[in-house]
Design brief:
This protein has helices spanning 25-34, 53-62, 68-78, and strands spanning 47-52, 86-91. The chain has 92 residues and is α+β, with helices and mostly antiparallel strands. Helix 2 packs antiparallel against helix 3.
């Protein structure tokens, strides 16, 4: 079966960022060690990638020095979702 590509007409994203790839060192280090998040991003760390809710929960439990803003935003992101669900992030 073939895989077709479709033009994206609209992407609606949150007004507040969930994390910052240049500044959230503890979270970024954890992502690099434990996920394939960066493999889906372009050369300048821009594009779309996703994380499984279970990965975010694990990060929240394991990263003790995660800053309060990032922790709050990630907790909001996963609120009411199942571990097997994914959250897509657009990075720019």
């Amino acid at each position: 079966m073939s895989v077709r590509a479709y033009k994206v007409k609209n992407i609606d994203f949150a007004k507040e960022s969930s994390f910052n790839l240049w500044n959230d060192d503890a979270f970024v280090s954890w992502l690099e060690r434990n996920t394939e998040f960066y493999l889906r991003l372009g050369e300048e760390c821009s594009g779309m990638s996703g994380l499984e809710v279970a990965e975010i929960k694990r990060a929240l439990a394991e990263i003790k020095d995660l800053d309060d803003y990032t922790r709050k935003q990630l907790e909001e992101d996963i609120k009411g979702l199942e571990d097997c669900e994914w959250i897509d992030y657009i990075c720019f």
